[in-house]
Amino acid sequence: MNAHFDGFYVAYLTGKAGRGLAMLAFKDGCIFGADAAGVLFDGIFIESCNAMLSIMMTVETPSGVNLIQGGLSGPEGIKTKLEFEMTTDFSIRPFVRIYSSREVVNVKIVKLEG
């Protein structure tokens, strides 16, 4: 089913106030990962019959982190739920645009071969 997406990925993120890099793992319909600032990514992906992946993900940002969308995460940190779709050929696309409640983030997702 989703096994052909299984693997490790690097996500290059760009927002209006900066850039970031996250490491992600796709395994059996689950996505999880982290970045150097301690941001955690946890979610699922579902492949549809129209060559799309539906992503449902929680992004947990610790306190005091500069956000690539602008601003700081604050003393309590931020927990953001994201739901978006991307084409199944996302790794050969220039980027995926993700709309959140804060701002738009462009993400280039590349599968690490090994």
Biggest sheet strand line-up: 6-5-4-3-2-1-8-7
Separation, N- and C-terminal Cα atoms: 22 Å
- Unreliable spans are none
The percent of residues in helical segments reads under 10%
What's the CATH architecture name?
Answer: Beta Barrel
CA-based shape: globular
For the sheet with most strands, the description reads: 8 strands, antiparallel
Query: Please, what is the average pLDDT?
Result: 92
Beta strands, count: 8
Query: How many helical stretches?
Result: 0
Please identify the top-level CATH class.
Answer: Mainly Beta
Round the Cα radius of gyration to an integer and report it: 14 Å
What name does CATH use for the topology? Answer: Lipocalin
Number of domains: 1
Q: Name the helix and strand elements from N-terminus to C-terminus, one letter apiece.
A: EEEEEEEE
Indicate the proportion of strand residues. over 45%
Return the structural class.
mainly beta
